[in-house]
Write a structure and sequence with these properties.
two-stranded antiparallel ribbon, 2 domains, globular, single chain, disordered C terminus, 237 residues, two-stranded antiparallel sheet, 10 helices, mainly alpha
Length: 237
């Protein structure tokens, strides 16, 4: 079961590691960091820890972990390139127009495309995300010391009102594993988009992950499990 302290720490480390990834991408564009160096230390926890320790004071404070959090921070940071993003050495340029109001030669110009590119989940990643949700539900059920028939588990998994709660539950467990450097690939990104994006396929404006979201999601699924298991027990008797 999640705790407020545990998830607050995980969310804080995730926010800082994402900030560092953004900074690294910017540093590549500006020539402060080479692509080869960035890719090396952003894809291996041990390499990340060595590089961050050496350049600790050069990294912006918002993207810098506390010394006591270094190992878990680097573990999480190193999973980004396998889960959600890829660094592109020569991303090229794209046409830019302020507010996209006009793309004629007078109102638009070419700008560098960021070196950081979001991954595109494949069907196998979506299947793996569903498996992670199923596993997270099984874990929660086991902690409640109740019996839940498979048909009732499937009913919970198909409950649209629990869609975001279940995704958050699975993502929370994955976030804790990522702090140990364990990456599942773009399946993690699939889970993220199930609660941080709208059903229409665009990010929720001003969405910000919090520890409370994980605790509320776990509680909502727990209540559903206990309700169904209790009703099932009564019917069996």
């Amino acid at each position: 079961m999640f705790t407020s302290e545990q998830m607050s720490r995980a969310v804080g480390l995730q926010a800082r590691s994402y900030e560092l990834l953004q900074w690294v991408s910017s540093a590549i564009t500006k020539g402060f960091v080479s692509f080869k160096t960035a890719h090396h230390y952003a894809s291996a926890a041990s390499a990340a820890e060595e590089w961050i320790t050496r350049h600790y004071l050069d990294i912006p404070e918002r993207a810098r972990p506390a010394i006591e959090d270094m190992k878990d921070f680097c573990g999480l940071f190193s999973t980004y390139l396998e889960n959600s993003f890829e660094l592109v050495s020569d991303p090229g340029k794209r046409l830019y127009s302020p507010d996209a109001h006009c793309f004629c030669p007078l109102c638009s110009w070419l700008v560098d495309v960021p070196n950081l590119k979001a991954r595109r989940p494949a069907p196998t990643d979506k299947k793996r995300a569903q498996r992670m949700i199923h596993d997270a539900l099984d874990h929660l059920v086991s902690k409640q010391d109740v019996w839940l028939e498979e048909k009732h588990r499937e009913a919970i998994l198909k409950d649209t009102s629990l869609r975001e709660h279940l995704a958050l539950l699975a993502y929370g467990h994955d976030l804790l594993r990522r702090m140990k450097g364990n990456a599942v690939g773009p399946a993690s990104l699939v889970l993220w988009r199930m609660f941080a994006w709208l059903p229409s396929g665009s990010p929720k404006k001003k969405f910000k992950l919090s520890a409370e979201m994980f605790l509320q999601a776990e509680q909502a699924v727990k209540e559903k499990v206990l309700h169904i298991s209790g009703a099932s027990h009564v019917q069996t008797i």
